[in-house]
Amino acid sequence: MKFQRLAAVLVIGAAGIDASAACKRDGSLSNSHADKPSNESPRLHVGEPVWPSNGIAERQLGNGKETWPENIIVEYTNEAWNVWAIVSPVRGPSNAIEFFSGRVDDVMVTNPGGYNDSFIDSKCIKHSANTDRSFHFKDPRPGGAVGSIHVNVDVLRFECENLCGPDIYVSELHNDSGGVLWRKVPFFLDEGELDSMIGTGIDMRDGTVIFIGGKYVFRVRQRDFTPVGGAPHLRVVDERDVIRVIDKANGKDIKDFDAYLTEELHLK
User: Fold this and answer.
1) 3-class secondary structure for the chain?
2) Which of 24, 52, 22 is nearest to 37 (CA)?
């Protein structure tokens, strides 16, 4: 996931679509969370979220190159909490995945290629961020924080005469006084290629966060950056171990840096 590509999403002047037009024509548009007119976004007064304990820590949506999830919304409906990640390119179909159930749906959004805090699903049901609970949201730009985790704070690179190897992005956790508790690299494995830039993210208010890396959506614990369950495409490595492997490469003729990192850091 490259910054230039992410930045383009934020600045493209896309003409938004009337996502609800087709559903309005046949009178089938409804809200998933309340019997209200479709143009309203009611904020429900609810308690702290209770998330399913189903051992899921990874989902994927899009292809990670032309399409990737760039928006996340939290919704409360039918006495259950849902977290939706949304792919909404400027051109092409939009999709959403509910993280805990894995449900994927074709959807309509009002701002293709930009920020969306709601969508309409294939059954003409509107989904939106609809509670009075505040969920800290990080947009797709490289900097910022997901919960207490400061992401993409530094970039590690191989020493080469020409640009070579992947940019390796470091994230870190601070304590209450501002000291650094750890600095780690989250590697996302995708068909032999490595990425480590975190895009969109959201604080789940329970000591975990959900963040997006490429086409993947991960849920990890803030205290140590470990996934809460199965996450076959995520490897979290201490920064010092990555630096050691980079230093070891000095003077070597490395043809495939992704393969080198994968082998030396035991990422498979």
Assistant:
1) CCHHHHHHHHHCCCCCCCCCHHHHHCCCCEECCCCCCCCCCCCECCCCCCCCCCCECEEECCCCCCCCCCEEEEEEECCEEEEEEEECCCCCCEEEEECCCCCEEEEECCCCCCCCCEEECCCCEEEECCECCCCCEECCCCCCEECCEEEEEEEECCCCCCCCCCCEEEEEEECCCCCEEEEEEEEEEECCEEECCCCCEEECCCCEEEEEECCEEEEEECCCCCECCECCCEEEEEHHHHHHHHHHCCCCCCCCHHHHHHHHCCCC
2) 24
> Contact, 43 vs 130, CB < 8 A?
yes
Among 1-5, 215-219, 234-238, 242-246, whose mean pLDDT is lowest?
1-5
For 234-263, what is the mean pLDDT? 94
Write down the pTM of the prediction: 0.85
